[in-house]
Model the fold of this input.
Amino acid sequence: MTRLFSHEPISFKRMSPGVKNLILANIAVFLVSAVVGPSFYDHFGLVPRRVLEDRWVWQPVTYMFVHGGFFHLFFNVFMLWMFGMAIEAQWGTSEFLKFYFICGLGVALVKLGLWPHSAVPLIGASGALFGLLVAFAMLYPEAVVYLYFFIPVKAAHMAILCGLMEFFMMLGQGSGGVDHFAHLTGLGVGYLYIRWWSTLKIRLKSFLPRAAPPPGARRRQAPAASRPAPAPTPKPAAGMEEVDRILDKILASGMSSLTEEERDVMRRYSDRMQH
Done:
């Protein structure tokens, strides 16, 4: 079932439950960290040495809710609202939250695998949020997003641009305390999960047997000459599964690979989203 969302000023009451609960959790943890002080980061940020040597196994989850300052929290919460609302509207709360934590945990696992003896804490939800960015770009590639609040770009182009910027900033070592590698990892985990999972679902459905028609469903029809010509019916709206399949095909082979029927599906879907 396709869910609808609206572009309205930020309203906490109208927020979807997954986004709302994540925002509340991030704010609550930030207030606690402000009271406890710097030791909070060592205990609840992601410190690979602590996880692997001291068995502080909660850190791969808790680090996503720890932020280093008000603006770090503000921009992450804003990004969560901007992309999370649209994604949760399409996927539902459980699938949205699963994807969010898969991206965050994926970043943590890569960090643990590459720097197992590091004592520098990784904090913030940015890795998971970059996963949401790529998910939004794959769900709504033609949506216009204002980069830095001024530059209008398509969502698909924005995801590519952000990935390139993070890559070059990582090479330049000009992080200023920002872990650009974690951002890139979040992008990669989100992209691979969506591509792998959607492809797997399509393949599984191809092996599932089709349901047999209920008893009595088949009826003897009158000869064609005696039946009135059926009235033309409008084509049904494209379902999200079909749209997702076509988007995957575009990402893999480009627009030129689409059949005329698939182009018609995307046109009807675009018209429906605009209205």
Remarks:
- The chain has eleven helices and two strands.
